[in-house]
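Lecture 7 notes. Example A: sequence first, then its structure tokens.
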Amino acid sequence: MSFLNDALLEHLRGVADRPDLGDPRYEVLARIGRGGMGNVYRVEDRLLGRQVALKVVNDGLPQEVAERMLREARILAQLEHPGIVPIHDAGRLPDGRLYCIMKLVEGRRLDALAGDALPVAERIRILMRVCEAVAFAHSQGVLHRDLKPENVMVGEFGEVLVLDWGVAKAVSPTGSALAAETTDATVAGLPPSQATSCGAVIGTSGYMSPEQSRGEAGGLDERTDVYGLGAILYCLLTGRAPHADAVTSAAIVPPRVHDRSIARALEAACLRALDADAGRRYPSAQALHDDLARFLLGQRVSAHRESLVERVERWVWKYRTPLLLVVTYLLMRVVVQAWLQLKEDRPTLERTSPGARQSERQEDDEHE
């Protein structure tokens, strides 16, 4: 009697779990992700000669889970933006499970990238790209509602993609199926932070807004996603979630407490986005984007009231290159003038030196 080793058993289990699309166009290559809701596979599209991602709902889960993935697919189909993963197809496998085929996203999640020694300016540019994608979604009447570093992917060529629109919601009915399909409904079998029932908590502990933590699902608007963007900025600056203790009602520790090198203007922008009162936050993702752009350009940030010293420092930093050239020129002028003056004074010094005076007396004696 022979026994199979663990590696072989795992291989056989993986082969058995591979979905059969019933279409020779697609060849499943390997599983690249596993979660409580489903699995993600790398698939070869033989017709177009490209690799795509196949997302399949796990068997045996409640129908509401499949409906959530279907909502996500329909939302992604409406949001055609470079910062949002495009979906190519959706349907059901021969065994009845729901699947989606979408762009294969390769890169690093932002939470992993945040640990790298990236310059602050580069971190801000990444967040600005996230703001652009979220602002576009808002223009289409869609809220993400679960913005966090884990839901942002940065590709090796600098592309920035916002992922996981599974709890997204339409906030302005368009008359299409999108508005109907994104109506909140209880999703059984999911963690409390992922449930989407009316009055339930939607989002992720540590990153969700106060109104989300109170279960005010019906009163959310763009400023809820602004809070999520501020939470991502906080993580990029400090390396931790704004509510690291998962207590949303607790006061947020200012970023400069963790790192004194963070600019006050950048801290002010972060704290405004994270204000507990939605009315005091940035009114939109675009407004936060614009303030971050002003910071990078050395302009005044609307969220920060500058002191005179800070205004001078910002002005000096903004014009540091021409100022350095002017200072260098003036120093060179001083050095050249000192050298010319020294050169003019040298003959006089030579004539008035003791040796020169003795030589003059000897010459006078010889003449006499």
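Example B, a different protein, same format:
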Amino acid sequence: MSNVTENLTIRVPLSYAFFLQQEQAIDNLLSFSPWVSPALEADVLAAIQLMVPVGCIRELIRIGGDGDGAYLLPNDLQGLAACFSPGVADVSTFEAELADRFGIPSYLCDASVTGENLELRDGAHWFSRKWLGSFDGAETQSLDHWVLGSDHAEAGDLLLQMDIEGSEYRSLLGCSESVLSRFRIVVIELHGLAGLQSSRFLNTLFLPTLHKLQRQFDCVHAHANNCCGSVDLYGVAVPQVIELTFYRREANRGERRPAQMPHPLDVVNVPNMPPLLLGFPWSGAAVWP
């Protein structure tokens, strides 16, 4: 008997939603495919420079406790209307301190957890079980949809704290300039920086995202997350994951305090792993020699 399944073809209809939901996985696959050329050295070094802080007119303070989930922000939180915090997982110490010390409410979203797993304050925290992305769907929402659909849709001084495991690039690229301009402070964890050696990742995701941020914000702090080590890119040790703090440029005018790296208030993200210190160009001049 012949094998009747030898030439059997199974067709599964794929909707646009499938590709949108898998866009990060598709990006990762394409970035390291043999069809994509390596990034040019000059472009990689210029990209690294975009993550070097320029200094801040205000001192930095740590919000969120003494472990992972804590970040350094400019001491300019008075008047902030709300925080938008995607990617909370099961740690909400950052949002708790904002509420307790400064009276700043937070919107949180993460499809990997339920609100019951978080210590939410009534009237101060609002949680939605969704991913943050570049589109609006059943399990995903865009930053525009989230902000404009909130009770703080008209607020002009907001805080964004984003740790969404690689989805930060398309989420920010999909955000309108007008909504992005409403944030006074943006704290973001950038992932997958080994991808800077790929021309596709560098030129279609990383550079457009950083250039978009730097049209309105100054980078005022950088901290290497020691969770995943570093990668050597043209002689520069680049952490696989880095935390960056951005401050609205209009608010950062004046005499800036020099950036300190490491900063005395920095904490080690993963205590049972060696600390990961930023070398040149972070620890040296803010321009290439």
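Note on Example B: The helical segments are 16-21, 23-31, 41-49, 93-102, 143-148, 168-173, 177-180, 199-214. The two ends are 74 Å apart (CA to CA).
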